[in-house]
Amino acid sequence: MNILDLTITQLHEGFRNKNFTSVEVTKAYLENIKKTDKEIGAYLLVTEGLALNQAEKADKLISLALSGVEGNGGDFPLLMGVPFSVKDAILVEGQKATAGSKILENYVAPYDATVIKKLKTQGAVILGKTNLDEFAMGVSTENSAFKVTKNPNDLTRVSGGSSGGSAASVAAKQAVYSLGSDTGGSIRLPASFCGVVGLNPTYGAVSRSGLISMASSLDQIGPITKTVEDCRIVFDAIKGKDPLDATSIESQISNFKSEIKNIKIGVPKEYFGRGINSNVKKIIEDAIKKAKKHGAKIVPISLPNSKYAVACYYIIVPSEVSANLARFDGIKYGLYEDAENLLDGYMKTRGRGFGIEVKRRIMLGTYSLSSGYYDAYYKKAQEVRQIIKEDFIDAFKKVDLIFSPVSPIPAFKIGEKTDDALSMYLMDIYTCPVKLAGLPAISLPVGNIGKLPVGLQIIGKYFEENKIFNIASQLEKML
Amino acid sequence: MISKDEVRHIAKLARLELTESETAKMQKDLSSILDYFDLLKKVKSEKLKAKNSGLKFKSNLRKDEVKEKPASLANNLIQAAPDKKDGYIKVKSIL
């Protein structure tokens, strides 16, 4: 048995049976990070001191629980003592939070994100902060101001993005699980490229307090894990309404059991058309056939307005970005470049602190919102967003879940697309429509092209994460 | 194709200093992306009007009341500022 292969429930059982301690598990992970991360580059910061401290505390609480003096029948939280990594856009008090940007290179988080508070309450162990595209803008981590995270399956290829460091850390056994964030595909795409499970929860299911904002009408925090079961455990731990995030909702997440033989799976024809790699297509179709063989009813559906999604998304997101990133003015936090007057200080600080993709989006957003262009771009995009959403709502009248690829191609070569912003944007083609509608979706590894993993996207109805988990875990066992 | 002057104007509105090479790159990139956005012109506005029934999210406002936070939080927040004095953030004079 390799301790680094164990899932959350297996670790929990191991702690309960005193097979190993959290300190031992944490040390094994820290050692593996030291051994492998020079090559992979998943971490921006390893919080060794914090991790060992939390692990020791967890061990004390576990032995206290097992001794029975607490009168809790030897129970302790599932995530207690389990080491995980955190995307560097999520705040951990007292630790640096760079969001992958030079402008926040020396920023120390003044408080914990709500998701971190929740995991700390469970006794989880924080191994470090993982790499991402600057401010989560990108699909490959190549936009990080610090480094590129390589794909653990093939070091010449990207890990996907923006939560590339998170996905790579789980795939390379440098963390049991990770927290990422998904705005257009930033959890599902790297999960698909690296061959791990990644959930983008329903908009509002998880608090974003303490997540450095990119586009607030879309950003969601979610888990990246080894298995579907782990994904459910982490999601259950972080979900729920939070007074610090006005868009968070008390989850009406249904708890029914669904079996694959009783469900209807919608397959949108638009997601298998032009531009999809033929091997990706075959792997996804094979997964659908397996579901069919086990009794699922396969229903061809149409999401006709999805073809507008990328254009719609890349107007709405930059518009929100241009507003959200106005806060980086060199005064409240982060980098400051001195200048003659206040205006020049803004211009210089932002000119030097932001990378090219961030600038591009701020420019696009400023343009889309500017007088004379607002109606043609921003307003139009908001209207189109609505019809994209209604496509899904109509489809879900006929089916329980929708299956599609996560991405039209597997992980691409580092540097292959860096000069072509639009081709990067088109990587979101199957993931961003889901976000515009606010729906939950998982990426489940279902096959490989050579060394490169391919993820199946399973999209559910609002707050039906549990149905996604049920079916995904049944599929996971078949593959 | 948008002009370099337009790029410079937007950059100024966005409070971004761009180098000459960045300006040239922006001109090229923004032009090709804006061309791609033309796709949305194909969506007929009648279709939008008919469809925009609106799925409404409930507004979710908290009570307007002061909540006490630990002094350490205020301190942490001030500490993050590049320039500060006596617990205040310093800003260049604007008058």
From TrEMBL, chain A:
Annotated ranges, domain Amidase: 24-468
Superkingdom to which the source organism belongs: Bacteria
Keyword Zinc annotated: no
Positions in coiled-coil regions: none
EC number annotated for this UniProt entry: 6.3.5.7
GO molecular function: ATP binding; glutaminyl-tRNA synthase (glutamine-hydrolyzing) activity
Segments passing through the bilayer: none
Annotated GO biological process: translation
GO cellular component: a single term: glutamyl-tRNA(Gln) amidotransferase complex
Keyword annotations: ATP-binding, Ligase, Nucleotide-binding, Protein biosynthesis
Active site, renumbered: 87 (charge relay system), 162 (charge relay system), 186 (acyl-ester intermediate)
Catalytic activity: L-glutamyl-tRNA(Gln) + L-glutamine + ATP + H2O = L-glutaminyl-tRNA(Gln) + L-glutamate + ADP + phosphate + H(+)
Assembly behavior: Heterotrimer of A, B and C subunits.
Function summary: Allows the formation of correctly charged Gln-tRNA(Gln) through the transamidation of misacylated Glu-tRNA(Gln) in organisms which lack glutaminyl-tRNA synthetase. The reaction takes place in the presence of glutamine and ATP through an activated gamma-phospho-Glu-tRNA(Gln).
Family that this chain belongs to: Belongs to the amidase family. GatA subfamily.
Protein name in UniProt: Glutamyl-tRNA(Gln) amidotransferase subunit A
Organism of provenance: Candidatus Staskawiczbacteria bacterium RIFCSPHIGHO2_01_FULL_34_27
Phylogenetic placement of the source organism: Bacteria, Candidatus Staskawicziibacteriota
From TrEMBL, chain B:
EC number: 6.3.5.-
Range of residues in the leader sequence: none
Known catalytic reactions: L-glutamyl-tRNA(Gln) + L-glutamine + ATP + H2O = L-glutaminyl-tRNA(Gln) + L-glutamate + ADP + phosphate + H(+); L-aspartyl-tRNA(Asn) + L-glutamine + ATP + H2O = L-asparaginyl-tRNA(Asn) + L-glutamate + ADP + phosphate + 2 H(+)
UniProt keywords, alphabetically: ATP-binding, Ligase, Nucleotide-binding, Protein biosynthesis
One example GO MF annotation: ATP binding
A GO BP annotation: regulation of translational fidelity
Pfam families: GatC (PF02686)
Gene3D superfamilies in the record: Glu-tRNAGln amidotransferase C subunit, N-terminal domain
Subunit structure: Heterotrimer of A, B and C subunits.
Function of the molecule: Allows the formation of correctly charged Asn-tRNA(Asn) or Gln-tRNA(Gln) through the transamidation of misacylated Asp-tRNA(Asn) or Glu-tRNA(Gln) in organisms which lack either or both of asparaginyl-tRNA or glutaminyl-tRNA synthetases. The reaction takes place in the presence of glutamine and ATP through an activated phospho-Asp-tRNA(Asn) or phospho-Glu-tRNA(Gln).
Family membership noted in the UniProt record: Belongs to the GatC family.
Listed name of the protein: Aspartyl/glutamyl-tRNA(Asn/Gln) amidotransferase subunit C
Native source species: Candidatus Staskawiczbacteria bacterium RIFCSPHIGHO2_01_FULL_34_27
